[in-house]
Predict the structure.
Amino acid sequence: MFLLVMLFNVYVVSKYKIIDMLTAGRKNEDVKFRNPLIYVITFIMCVASLGYAYVTVLKIGLNFTNPMFMVSIILGILGTFLFFFSLSGFILYVVKKNKKVYFKGLNIFIIKQINSKVNTNFISMSVICLMLFLTMVVLSTGISLKRSIDATMKEATPFDASIMLENRDESYTIEDV
């Protein structure tokens, strides 16, 4: 996997000129502010899909055979991507409406730079968020599984050591041992 990523990065970097790579850190990204209505609608869709996904999982539980379980997982992933896509535009739209905050100090520059970084990296941020969620789920599942196994072992073996005696011909008793 790492070899594949390395080859892809070599291919991407080889397409750039050296002077462009040296001056890339000093260039500002153009803020492409789309229609604010798109961001608001996307934000509402993200809240609706995340809400429906979590309500569905809470209602049906972890029933993997139920087809709604897979639908809720897909809606949760889609809602996460929509959240990070709409986040920057939605915040920029709300802050631009509040002129006191927008024109105070360096807020114009800072807010637009944050907006451009979130717009550029929303896929990476979504994947990181989903991976952290998966890590928390796996960790809590592992801890629960360990506790369950410990409780089962305590019930099944109440003593530190157990001796099992097979007396097939019944010629001796426990006192003989």
The two ends are 60 Å apart (CA to CA).
